[in-house]
């Protein structure tokens, strides 16, 4: 017996869907949430993979998620689509809004998708990577709960406030990055707490504002941003564009609204889409080819592109299935409505 | 005699204009370049202030700047304005293109200004801050010359690749940041070299790829990005959006095109403008007010907002003039066509 359990994509999909169904979540939400969770697991993004189901189930149990949410799409302006997620999970709202947004980008050259009133739980790369595979460049950002202190401060103001970007490549996986503007992801600290291991120095302060490597103390105190005042500035930008500009909650407000329930944060998200075909016209192909000069210069010196590890994990998962800790698998099975095959 | 010379805004403006005129640069370019240089000096941004005139004069002397450049504005798509800077300095092209871009943003909700074929020498905040003072949010980015190694590498690929952002505040200076995605600005390393002082550790490697604090060795080797792989990812995004997307040069290409002449980089710039009035409609005022919760939470714990020091310097300069090193002032006077009042 190993400490890992291997699941096929079909196994993981069924497991996720059945767990979510058991919460009473609408079929369409179960499907949309499952799609991003399985994609994360298959890319070996453990903190956004099947592990995240624990948080989703808890979120539904708090009563804060609208289990039968019906996203409403509004054509706000020639370059802006708004989707009200109706207090459901973000994934279904994204799926409703992204088509009209791409249609606008193809005409206007660029367009924004503002998702409001959504419970966001996923990584952002599953939202931008597919756009790059369709030829678009895309930037996504979203606040979360106020867990992160600004540079020069010790008390939480910002969320982990991820920024993701994707760029299309003609004959390779897209260039994709997705990172928290906090020095680490909150999910990573939670995994350390579960594993009983220390976090690295420089990531967080405790409730008194003193540096700590204890994950539990960090979760009670404040995380720090990456890159000092520059990361802090970017995190503020995420609050302004992904919160204020779209008329949705700041991380401070979202945390207050949660009132200790520990549900996935309720707030908004902004996705900005650029259509290189409009920017470049007949010069599109030559320019996409020219971008390979950049990627080649990075790779040829032994440096890596962001997401490279993720794409390798995906190819491996498609061949060999994905592995999750046996302990997590057992916890997930507990969430099923009836005894199930333990794998 | 102090080591500083105090100049009024009028003094600095006249000095800059006269120095640029002496190079044969067209009157309109002299005016546009002088505006941004004096604004930087007045905000005590030394590396982009009057010091930068040395670089501008050298750039014109290399013959690479089109002294009589006439920017051409193209209405590329409903949300895209392009300006061909005609190989002149960026400032005049920006001034031509920004009005039509704001007009588009007011209708579409957002718009992009792509400046091509420009010699860029200024900070980016002078381009985005005025937009926030008119009620817009704006994001600007531009490549430079390949001086910066990607995370995990040791050889230059990226430029210093600044990102700037500005957000309007109803009753305060806008929220504005502008930072190099390199760990420091190249201008700062040059100032250390001039001053004969070491740079901090972690900013650069020498030509062999080894860490260095010697500014001359750093200038020969490669600078590093801020924030490890996250800063490196952002820097790549600047190359893609501020280079490939707008059909203009990568930092690698711009450096190669310079061929050792040491002129200000010739390439492009992307500015993305969001109109909060379109995004928010009747809820604009309430949301701008709500953003003050964020700024208050930062300031109330003793942390600072980016640009705060700059705005304080500006207020001081408006009252008391600006101070530049006497040595720099003497160098600048040498660039005047005839003996001038030495201040």
From TrEMBL, chains A, B:
InterPro entries: Mal/L-sulf/L-lact_DH-like_ah, Mal/L-sulf/L-lact_DH-like_NADP, Mal/L-sulfo/L-lacto_DH-like_sf, Malate/L-lactate_DH-like. Belongs to the LDH2/MDH2 oxidoreductase family. It comes from the Bacteria. SUPFAM superfamilies: L-sulfolactate dehydrogenase-like. The keyword Oxidoreductase applies. This is Ldh family oxidoreductase. It comes from Shinella pollutisoli. Pfam families: Ldh_2. Keywords: Oxidoreductase. Gene3D superfamilies: 1.10.1530.10, Hypothetical oxidoreductase yiak, domain 2 (3.30.1370.60).
């Amino acid at each position: 017996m190993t400490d890992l359990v291997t699941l096929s994509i079909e196994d993981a999909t069924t497991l996720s869907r059945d767990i979510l169904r058991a919460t009473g979540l609408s079929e369409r939400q179960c499907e949309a949430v499952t799609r991003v969770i399985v994609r994360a697991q298959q890319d070996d993004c453990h903190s956004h993979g099947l592990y995240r189901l624990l948080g989703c189930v808890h979120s539904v149990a708090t009563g804060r998620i609208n289990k039968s949410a019906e996203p409403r799409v509004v054509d706000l302006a020639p370059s802006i689509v708004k989707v009200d997620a109706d207090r459901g999970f973000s994934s279904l709202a994204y799926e409703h809004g992204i088509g009209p947004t791409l249609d606008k980008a193809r005409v206007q050259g660029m367009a924004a998708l503002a998702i409001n009133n959504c419970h966001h739980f996923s990584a952002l790369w599953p939202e931008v990577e597919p756009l790059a595979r369709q030829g678009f460049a895309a930037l996504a950002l979203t606040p979360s709960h106020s867990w992160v202190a600004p540079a020069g401060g010790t008390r939480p103001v910002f969320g982990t406030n991820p920024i993701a970007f994707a760029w299309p490549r003609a004959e390779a996986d897209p260039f994709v990055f997705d990172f928290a503007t906090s020095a680490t992801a909150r999910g990573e600290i939670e995994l350390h707490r579960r594993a009983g291991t220390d976090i690295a120095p420089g990531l967080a302060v405790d409730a008194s504002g003193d540096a700590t490597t204890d994950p539990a103390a960090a979760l009670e105190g404040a995380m720090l941003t990456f890159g000092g005042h520059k990361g802090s500035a970017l995190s503020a930008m995420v609050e302004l564009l992904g919160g204020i500009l779209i008329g949705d909650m700041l991380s401070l407000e979202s945390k207050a609204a949660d009132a200790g329930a520990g549900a996935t944060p309720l707030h908004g998200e902004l996705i900005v889409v650029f259509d290189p075909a409009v920017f470049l016209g007949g010069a599109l192909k030559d320019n996409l080819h020219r971008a390979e000069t950049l990627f080649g210069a990075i790779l040829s010196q032994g440096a890596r592109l962001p997401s490279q590890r993720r794409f390798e994990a995906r190819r491996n998962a498609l061949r060999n299935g994905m592995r999750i800790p046996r302990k997590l698998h057992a916890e997930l099975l507990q969430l099923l409505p009836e005894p199930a095959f333990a794998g």
